[in-house]
Amino acid sequence: MDGLSNETQAAIAGREQAGGSLASPLWATTAFSSADPGDAARAAGSTRPQRFYTRYGNPTINAFEEAVAALEGAESALAFGSGMGAIASTVMALCSQGDHIVAQRQLYGGTLFFLQTVCPRFGIEVSLVDATQPGAFREAVRPGRTMLVLAETPANPRLGVSDLEEIGSIRGPFTVVDSTFATPMVQRPLQFGVSLVLHSATKAIGGHNDATLGVIAGERDLVDAVWGYATLHGSVASPFDSWNALRGIRTLGVRIERMSSTALAIARFLESHPAVMSVSYPGLESHP
C-alpha cells in the first residue's frame, strides 16, 4: 500500500480475507470450529486470533481494521463497539491507580464525563488544559507519573484545533488523538509522532448512519496491549457494523471532499448573516 493515495487505499484496503471478492464477505458468526483440541487451545492463548471467537477476532472486523490501519499509515488497528468503547478501553488498558492523565477541556461530552467521573473512582487523576494554548499539554505533564495525554482535534462540538506537532513531540506518556471529525483524509496524527489515533467510526468513516463503531490505530505492540484489555472489557465491534463501515470507507474520500466544501459554504453564509453572533469553523479565515 506504500505510495498509494489515501483515496486509492480507501478503495482497495482490507481485502486480504476476501478470497478474490471485491466486496468483503460478512462473517456473521460468534465462533469458529477447530481442527482438534490442540488447535483450539493455541487459538485461545494467542494474540488476536482471527478464527476462534468473535470477541477475540473475526475476519470481517479484521478487514475493517486493516483498512483503517492503511489509511492512517499504521502497523495495526483495533475496532470497538463504539467510539466511547474505544476511549474507555484505551484509557483503562493504559492507566492504573495512581496514574495521571492530561486531557483538554474541549472534548466530546462523553469523553469528558468519563474522565471526570469514572477515572477518579479508579484512582486515576485527570488534569484538563486549554488545548488551543501553545505548550499547555507539555506544561501539565508530570514526569514519571503522567501515563496518558489525550487530545481531540478538531474538537467536538466547537472545532477547536490543537497542535499535533506539539502533542507528538511529548516524550514519556502515551499520546492519543481523537481524530473523528477530520478522518484520515484530512489529517494523520501518527505522522507527527502521536502514539495512537482514535475515531468514532460511527461518524464520517462509516458515513451511512447504520454502523456504531470505534477504532484505534498505531504501533502493533501498543494496539495488541489494548486488545488484551479490550477482550475483557467486552466493548467489541459487530461483524455487521464492521462490514457496513468497510463499505463506507470505499467512498470516504469523495464524501469528505463534499462534506468539507458544503460545511465551508454554510459557515461563510452564517458568518455574514446579521442574526449570527459568531461561527467557529477551521476553514474560515476568522478561525483562531
Write a brief structural summary.
This protein is α/β, with parallel strands linked by helices. It has helices at residues 6-12, 37-44, 59-72, 83-94, 109-121, 136-140, 164-168, 220-233, 239-249, 252-271; strands at 76-80, 100-104, 125-129, 146-152, 174-178, 196-200, 214-218. The radius of gyration is 20 Å and the shape is globular.
What does this structure look like?
Helix 5 (109-121) links the parallel strand 2 (100-104) and strand 3 (125-129). The protein has helices spanning 6-12, 37-44, 59-72, 83-94, 109-121, 136-140, 164-168, 220-233, 239-249, 252-271; strands at 76-80, 100-104, 125-129, 146-152, 174-178, 196-200, 214-218. Strands 1-7-6-5-4-2-3 form a 7-stranded mixed beta sheet, sandwiched between helices. It is α/β, with parallel strands linked by helices and 288 residues long. The protein is built from 10 helices and 7 strands. The chain starts with 5 loop residues before the first helix and ends in a 17-residue tail after the last helix.
Can you give keywords for this protein?
single chain; 13% strand; 7 strands; alpha/beta; 288 residues; 7-stranded mixed β-sheet
Strand content: 5-15%
Helical coverage, percent range: 25-40%
Secondary-structure element order, N to C: HHHEHEHEHEHEEEHHH
Average pLDDT taken over every residue = 94
Kindly, what is the distance between the CA atoms of the first and last residues, rounded to a whole number of angstroms? Answer: 36 Å
Structure annotation, total helices:
10
Low-confidence blocks of residues: none
Instruction: Report the major sheet.
Output: 7 strands, mixed
Q: Which word captures the global form?
A: globular
Instruction: Give a count of the beta strands, DSSP E runs of length 2 or more.
Output: 7
Rg computed from alpha carbons, rounded to a whole number of angstroms: 20 Å
Instruction: Supply the helix-strand structural class.
Output: alpha/beta
